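Kindly inspect this today.
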Amino acid sequence: MDLFITAEALRDHFDEVTVFDLRFLLEDLSYHRVVYEEGHIPGAFYLDFEDDLSDPRGDFGGDHPFLLPDDFARLLEGFGLKDDSTVVLYDEESLMSAARFIYQSRFAGLSIKIHILKGGYGAWLAAGGEEETAIPKAPGGGHLSIQPRPDLICKQDTVKEKMDDPTSLLIDSRAPQRYLGQVEPRYRIAGHIPGAVNYFFKDVIAEDGGLKDRAYLEDHFAGLDKYDDIILSCGSGGSACVNSLALQALGIPHRLYNGSYSEWVANPDNPVNTGEEGK
């Protein structure tokens, strides 16, 4: 199985995997719980972007700090996961929660196999998949080995150090209007971190819910090979992880500024730019 799995393939392998429901809308924090209780894939466990995949006590800054590797492993162990487990995630069209789950797994150095259900819950139902409203009980008893990858994360100080480095590129994954400073629905000031260039994360998502084909992605990210250090950012460490999926597919090394714009603008001394930039 590839990174993405079809609903039909999930049905064929259903007894071999652990399924997680990651549907989430940042603008409606009650949404996930409501839709999960209305119906989900049988046996699917609920994991929430805000409550489960973020740690407000974490030391990564911003609105949605990553869990530390050990904490992320302990979370998944509660669902019975072991090093040889296979996981299937389903999400909204944005893929933000699924991509974040994958990046945190990489950061923790887990060996579990992870797939994303192409087309999400809608594709499952369209393929004749059953749904349930019962809440499954997490079995516990898991055990996961971690090999943390601190090289996959950078903090605000590093972003500042790299600002004038011509071999480094900061990518802002948010919508163009937010990057340009035309609108800002969440933070105190509109714009972007100086020096950042805009690659809107939704541009890499195909209509069928997977990633666009390799030829498109190679053209979309053409020229990144001239940089030694690519840093992904967004609002608070969600949509940047979707761009990460695409860069992983192309074999382009990168790391994530988890605090992203939410942490950057929390410091009133940090400069903010508007309009287009380029390197």
In short: The first helix runs from residue 7 to 12. Strands lie at 4-5, 18-21, 45-46, 86-90, 113-117, 153-154, 168-172, 197-198, 229-233, 255-257. The two ends are 38 Å apart (CA to CA).
